[in-house]
Amino acid sequence: MIPFEEAKRRIEELRKEIDRHAYKYYVLDDPEISDVEYDRLMKELTELEDQYPELKTPDSPTVRVGLRPIDSFKEVVHEHRLFSLDNTYSAEEVMQFDKRIREALNVDSVQYVCELKIDGLSISLKYEDGLLLRGATRGNGFVGEDVTENIKAIKSIPLRLRKDLSIELRGEVYLPKDVFNELNKVRAESNLQLFANPRNAAAGTLRQLDPREVSKRKLSAFFYQIVEPERFGLKSQSEQLEFLRTIGLKVEPNFEVADGTEDVIEFWKKWSGLKSSLNYAVDGTVVKVEDLHLQQELGYTTKAPRWAIAFKFPAEQATTKLTGVTLGVGRLGTITPVAELEPVQLAGTTVKRASMHNFDFVREKDIRIFDTVIVEKAGEIIPQIVKSIPDKRTGEEQRIDPPSQCPVCGGQVGKEREEDGALKGLNPACPAKLSRRGQFF
DNA sequence: AGAGATCGGATAGGGTCGCT
DNA sequence: AGCGACCCTATCCGATCTCT
């Protein structure tokens, strides 16, 4: 057994070495040593810490993964709200966004930063004096869940920053495509249910109660925002990204500064073609005003910043058959026609149903029962019917008419006002307030 | 006064996990 | 096996605001 003083010195040396190699490997993507050598350093550190447990520290690379499952996730009230982003799907909408900003700032042109939008789940991290203090999910933006133990099990997230800062960060946790494929291969061999897509698998993994399981799933994370960046003397979004990288966090490397909308659209077009070459799922680009002062000037709506917008890649589409219509009755009596579809694979999930919102929608799109329809997933999540294909009709199709009575209570239905889209059950005592769905057709 | 933007609330979808 | 909570976000709709 080596003497205490010598062990202490060697432990500090090893931690520095390991942190440096982890940074080169995870953040810079430029490893200096092999995995085997890295593991050897880790093993030596673990053994020394076992000999002298009093030398263990909370930021040691050996304490990444907790030893046992936690009971439950605690609520975290976010000190600073996590906003979402407004979405756009076309060059025209981006030009409107640009126009809105130029008018609000009263300038001729604005510089933007284009980043790739990672398809994962957003998290908020808090470091104090350089030490990772807490990691939380977004939740509803105001209140999330404390997933600190699971965050610690993500190897590309440093337990200690390369500067002793007290800082709050925003990023996106994701499951790399190759890891996703490998996981599913193993699950298939064990006859386990396969994960449907990397995003859902990542979301599920982060809510595992056992950090040891999280560690096995090999999540990763990119960071893109600092809360109150002016505290660190930062002036622009691209500077902010570089800063994140220097303090030890992984940043998606393909961002670009753009002069005006032409560059923005160019970037989007380029990556709609190149996205499949990446080892992580991206569902679009994020366009942000480069100048942080201008960002501050533009401010926020209640849902999203005015200085940023998501510019999504086109949704995948699929063709299927509409087999029936179910009527949903909401708590307010609103009657919603829901399309029942022949199950079809789309963007990693099986689509069986799609809301048609109201009967005006059905009439405008001329959707009929047994029609062949094109479905897509808005934002990769919500399935919706794009249109019907009348050419494929056989004559057996049936029109979808608004019901003459409430499917739940049989009561009177109607629109509260002529120009309304929504059709409502008018019986105030309708049991739909308790049980909600009625069958039809 | 009227148009347009923006607000929150309600409702919608598929998938995963944890619990029973 | 089934259920509820949670993850993510789209759309609708009535209300409220801001601008012309």
TrEMBL record:
It catalyses: NAD(+) + (deoxyribonucleotide)n-3'-hydroxyl + 5'-phospho-(deoxyribonucleotide)m = (deoxyribonucleotide)n+m + AMP + beta-nicotinamide D-nucleotide. Its cofactor is Mg(2+). It comes from the Bacteria. Residues 6-438 form the NAD-dependent DNA ligase N-terminal domain. One of its GO terms (molecular function) is metal ion binding. Keywords: DNA damage, DNA repair, DNA replication, Ligase, Magnesium, Metal-binding, NAD, Zinc. SUPFAM superfamilies: DNA ligase/mRNA capping enzyme, catalytic domain (SSF56091), Nucleic acid-binding proteins (SSF50249). PROSITE patterns: DNA_LIGASE_N1. Its EC number is 6.5.1.2. GO terms for cellular component: cytosol. GO terms for biological process: DNA repair; DNA replication. Belongs to the NAD-dependent DNA ligase family. LigA subfamily. NCBIfam families: dnlj, PRK07956.1. This is DNA ligase. It comes from Mesotoga infera.
